[in-house]
Design goal:
- This protein has a five-stranded mixed β-barrel with strand order 8-11-9-10-12.
- β9 and β10 form a beta hairpin.
- The chain has a domain of about 220 residues: Spore Coat Polysaccharide Biosynthesis Protein SpsA, Chain A (Alpha-Beta Complex).
- By secondary structure, it is α/β, with parallel strands linked by helices.
- Helix content is about 40%, strand content about 25%.
Length: about 325
């Protein structure tokens, strides 16, 4: 199979970033990428997909946000071309934004009825093809130089011709924040599992009883990484699940159904995710991107100076 389409969910209003996310879309908040350029979060996420072989991207957004995204990127492109017209970096970034706009489309989630409902809004865009699913909250840093996290996932999905979700081994006191799973280790791979059981945000006691995975360190469990490749059959399962629900339509119960019906793998991602929607998420993501990129030395110097100044004030 081929994976040429990506869906980015970005309809949530970002209550944890209030009040800034009440006036500015949280996905448009700026952060310095590994190439040293200050970009909106959603541009970094989209470029992760494009550099991993994706050709078309659909953003699931809240009412009124599609126009705001397009306008913001158009203004940014225009400013780069006018204010920095003699700078090569600005010309390159303007071209990148144009390429992004050319490949970008939007679908509106009219009501906040849950993550599964948000994903379902992209059914027409996906058009019965496999697709990469990303969250508008997460930024990713790969441990493999020259290979993005999305590329790692897509390669396995294509090779095994099935749906694959990225996971990270996560210590037990954090699993209540994530979908958590267990499965059988595939003998021909390291860190790949055939998914058997999934629980959304389990308690530690429930995880101990139902979600222990042989081979992981004691006290660690496999939690979703916020990145998936799905075959289009996911939408049929979502449609059936949504028939009797009007709100709080989550994705995890449907993924359990997917694992019961079809080949569905979990892949231990060689990389780290950063949740930009939490209180210190932007700060943590900026440090991680800085350390992985061309501003590494500059960032280290800044951190040392800040810590030294803070020490003087004790």
């Amino acid at each position: 199979m081929q994976v040429k389409k990506a869906v980015i969910t970005a309809a949530a209003r970002g209550e944890r970033l209030y009040p800034v996310a009440d006036t500015v879309q949280k996905a448009m908040l700026p952060i310095i990428d590994i190439d040293g350029i200050n970009k909106p979060i959603i541009q970094i996420i989209a470029e992760e997909a494009l550099m991993s072989g994706i050709e078309e991207i659909c953003v699931v957004c809240a009412p009124g946000d599609a126009e705001r995204y397009v306008e913001s990127f158009q203004v940014l492109q225009s400013t780069l071309l006018k204010a920095y017209k003699h700078s090569d970096w600005a010309q390159k970034q303007a071209a990148n934004i144009k390429n992004l706009l050319d490949r970008l489309s939007f679908v509106v989630q009219k009501e906040p009825r849950g993550y599964g409902h948000a994903v379902y809004q992209a059914k027409q865009f996906v058009n019965n093809e496999p697709f990469l699913l990303l969250s508008g909250d997460y930024l990713y840093v790969s441990d493999i130089v020259g290979k993005h996290c999305a590329q790692q996932l897509i390669e396995l999905a294509i090779k095994e011709d099935c749906s694959v979700s990225a996971v990270n081994p996560t210590i037990e006191h954090l699993i209540g924040k994530y979908g958590t799973l267990t499965g059988k280790t595939m003998l021909n791979y390291k860190g790949v599992y055939e998914i058997e059981k999934i629980i959304e945000k389990p308690s530690v006691s429930a995880a101990e009883l139902e979600l222990q995975t042989p081979g992981l360190r004691a006290g660690y469990y496999l939690c979703f990484f916020g990145m998936h490749v799905f075959k289009p059959a996911l939408f049929d399962l979502l449609a059936a699940y949504m028939e009797n629900l009007k709100e709080n339509i989550q994705l995890t119960p449907v993924l359990q159904e997917l694992s019961d019906r079809d080949k569905y793998l979990a892949f231990e991602m060689k990389g780290t995710r950063y949740d930009t929607s939490k209180k210190l998420g932007l700060f943590e993501a900026q440090i991680a991107l800085g350390q992985a990129g061309i501003i590494k030395e500059e960032m280290l110097t800044s951190i040392i100076h800040i810590m030294a100044d803070a020490g003087k004030r004790k």
